Every structure is written in structure tokens, then in C-alpha cells.
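Q: I have 315 residues here and want to know how they pack in 3D. Can you give me a structure?
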Amino acid sequence: MNLLRRLSAVLSAAALSAALAGCVSKAEFDTCVRRNQIQEERIKTLEAARDDERLRADKLKQQLDGLLGAGSLCQQQLDALNAQLAAKNALLDRLASQMTQTPLPAELSSALADWAAQVGPDLVEYDEKTGIVRFKSDLLFAKGEDTVSPDAVPKLEGLARILASPAAQGFDGLIVGHTDDIPILKPDTLAKHPTNWYLSAHRAIAVERILGGAMPETRLAVMGLGEFRPIAPNESGRRGNPKNRRVEIYIVPSGSLRIGVQAGPAAASASAAPTAAPAPAPRPAAPRPPAPSAVIPPAAPRPSVPAPAFPGSGL
């Protein structure tokens, strides 16, 4: 641009000199001056455009520097997210591997599967992947009752014989009662089961009494979870769902629940696992206390024990 300005100045000076020397006419001189003015205007326009482009270039450079910095931060965040994803995928792989393995010995699992097939899916289901036996309460008990139906008693006795067999040595049973969300309203039922907590616990005890007739009761524990562990949605308006009315039996390694009364110094040791006592005992009439949530020892108030978590149980 400076060169153009110098050239324009030279041309103007030359035109002026020529005019003064009488070499050119006045018309030619005016034409030369006009051309010089046009050239000056073009130079100013180009310089303004150059300055605008420089400003745009500076802004683009600033934006590029910002993007490069943000890109570095985003890459770090992406790397961290990828690491978390890899860890979660590894956990899912381990869980999937565990889900494909039967937690019970083959002989015991096979005996339970054969027994469940003989009883039929209308009454009982056995999940070989988790080792859970699930009874449907509607066929196990009459509505609002905790007395096992006569037709179901032989089925439970068959299960008890399996749990008492050598194949089940080294395993204990946790019996867990569940209800749906239909409230208890009948006065006769309320007198026996003030809430669904009670009904679920009393039904678990009823099952335990039958199983305990064929195996040591120190290998059994009971728990009632009321309506609060559904496996399927209840109908709106607290109209329940038959799938949620059930009794589940978890067959777990001996000692994992610390089942049985412990004596000596070991009894005072703290543990995250619940300690359960033998269950069957006549229920004393008492004012309505807070609903029991777990194991019920004989001839004593029902303590609240946190529910253990077992795979596939929803507990």
C-alpha cells in the first residue's frame, strides 16, 4: 500500500511538472489528477479492508487458541469417562459371569429342579441361576391367612427332605414372606395380622414350621418384608398383584446369615450379617407395635434386622 501511495505521489508530481512546463494541456492534466484521486480512494479502501481482515484474523486466532485449550480439557474428560466406562463394563462382565453360574452344587440344584418340575409352575418356581425357590402365596395360603393349605403341605415336606439331605449339607435356608399392597381391612384378619408386615412374617413362619419338621431349625431363619419388595407393579388404587404375594426361600452357605444362637465371646462380636434365631413359637397377643421387618425369635419381641441382599431377589 505504501508503494502505491508513493507511485501515486510520483505521478501527481510528474503531471504537475509537465503542466507547469507546458508539456501537456490542462485537460490532460485534469484527467491525470482525477486518476490520481481515484487511485488514492482505492488505496484507502484496500487499506480499510486490510485492517478489517487483520482484526478478523486476530479474532480467529483467539478463538482457535480457546478451542485448542478447551479441546485439551475435553480430551481429558473424555479419557476419564472412557476409563469409567471400561471399569463398569468389566463389572458387568463379572456380574454376567456370576449370573451364568449356578450358586448351588450340581446335585442339590438338580434335586431342586426335579422337585419344582413335579410340583408344577402353578405353585412353585426354582431359579437355578440364583438358587431361589419361590412359592405363590395364593396357592399356598387362603386369602388373609397364614395357615399353609393342606394341598401344599406335602410339597413343602418334599422340599424339606431335599434340604435335609446330604446334598444340602453346608447350606441354610432363609424364608422370606411378601405381600402385595392391598391393605388389610377385615377385623378378623386385622386381629391376627395388623399390617402386611405381620402377614408376610407370619406366612414365613408357617412355612418354616413345616420345613423345620424334617431338618434342624438352627439352619432356618424367617423374615417378613410386607409389600415393600414387589417383583411386578401393583395395580393402581392399591389393588395389588398376585405376583407380589409370594414366599421365597434363599438357600445360602451355612454361616452366611449367622443362623442360630451363638454362645461365648463370639456372640458379642459385631457383624454386618444378620443373626437369626430359631423361629417357631406361639404368637402372643399384644398391642400393635411397629411392624416387624425380619427374623422373629421364639417367645420374644420381634427384632428389626436389615434384609440381606441376594442376587435376583430384589431384596
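Q: Anything worth noting?
A: The longest strand covers residues 171-178. The beta strands are 124-127, 132-136, 171-178, 220-224, 246-253.
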